[in-house]
C-alpha cells in the first residue's frame, strides 16, 4: 500500500473517483465494481443528490461545447442519461438487478455558453421491469435548457464473481 492509498481505497478501487464525483459514501458499495464511469469524469459531472425519487448533478459548460461555443446537445444527453441511469439503478436496488437504457429523447430549449448546467431527474414511472424518468437541465439562473425523457429496462444479471485463482 502506498502512502496515498487507504484501506478503504483497497477495498473499493473507485473510492477516490466516487468521492470526486460527489457520490455519497452510502452508495460506494453499490458502485464498487465499476465506479461512475470514465465519461462522468471526462464531462466533470458532480452529483449533488442521489435518491430513488430525485437525482441532481451539475456539469460545467466549459469543456463540453461545440465549435461555436455553445453547450453541445450531446453533452445535455450525456448528463441526462447519467442521471436517468443512476436513478433507475437505485430503483433496481443492490444485488442481482441492473438498469439498461432502452430509449432516450431530448428537446433543447435554450443555449448555454458559460457556467454550470444543473440536471434534475425525477421518476415518471417506477415499475418492476421498466422505469421512465424526466430529466430537466437548467442554467444557474434556473432557466430550462433542455428536457429529456429516458426509459430503462430492469433485468436480472449476474454479479461479478471473485477470481477463484486468487484464493488458491
Automatic annotation (TrEMBL):
This is Uncharacterized protein (TIGR00369 family). Residues 69-144 form the Thioesterase domain. InterPro entries: HotDog_dom_sf, PAAI_dom, Thioestr_dom. It comes from the Bacteria. Belongs to the thioesterase PaaI family. It holds the Pfam family 4HBT. Keywords: Hydrolase.
Amino acid at each position: 500500500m502506498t502512502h496515498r492509498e487507504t484501506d478503504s481505497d483497497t477495498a473499493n478501487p473507485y473510492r477516490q473517483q466516487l468521492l470526486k464525483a460527489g457520490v455519497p459514501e452510502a452508495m460506494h458499495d453499490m458502485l464498487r465494481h465499476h465506479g461512475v464511469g470514465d465519461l462522468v469524469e471526462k464531462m466533470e459531472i458532480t452529483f449533488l443528490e442521489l435518491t430513488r425519487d430525485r437525482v441532481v448533478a451539475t456539469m460545467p459548460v466549459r469543456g463540453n461545447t461545440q465549435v461555436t461555443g455553445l453547450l453541445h446537445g450531446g453533452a445535455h444527453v450525456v448528463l441526462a442519461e447519467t442521471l436517468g441511469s443512476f436513478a433507475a439503478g437505485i430503483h433496481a436496488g443492490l444485488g442481482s438487478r441492473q438498469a439498461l437504457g432502452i430509449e432516450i429523447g431530448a428537446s433543447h430549449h435554450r443555449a448555454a455558453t458559460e457556467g454550470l448546467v444543473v440536471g434534475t431527474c425525477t421518476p415518471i414511472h417506477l415499475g418492476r421491469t421498466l422505469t421512465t424518468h424526466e430529466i430537466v437541465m437548467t442554467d444557474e439562473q434556473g432557466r430550462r435548457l433542455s428536457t429529456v425523457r429516458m426509459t430503462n429496462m430492469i433485468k436480472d444479471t449476474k454479479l461479478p464473481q471473485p477470481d477463484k485463482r486468487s484464493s488458491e
